Amino acid sequence: MTDEVVKSVMIVGGGAAGWLTAAVIAAEHCAHSEEGLEVTVVESPNIPIIGVGEGTWPSIRDTLRRIGIRETEFIRRCNASFKQGTRFDGWRDGSSGDSYFHPFDPPPGPDEVDMLALWRAAPAGAPFAQAIGCQAALCLAGKAPKQKTTPEYAAVVNYAYHLDAPAFANLLREHCVRRLGVRVVPDDVVGVETDEAGFVRTLNTRRHGALQSDLYIDCTGSRALLIGDALGVKAKDVSHILFNDRALALHVPYMDENAPIASQTTGTAMGAGWIWDIALQSRRGVGYVYASGCESEEDARAELASYLRRVSPPSGANAEDARLIRFSSAYRETPWVRNVVAVGMAQGFVEPLEASAIVMVELSARMISDTLPARRTMMQRAAERFNARFAYRWERIVDFLKLHYALSRRAEDYWRAHAERETWPARLAGLLEQWRFDPPSREDFTDALEIFPAASYAFVLYGMGFETARRPLRRRKDDPRRVARHLSEIAARGEKFLGGLPSNRELIDHALTNGLMRV
Question: Which residues bind 7-chloro-L-tryptophan (predicted)?
Answer without folding.
Answer: 83
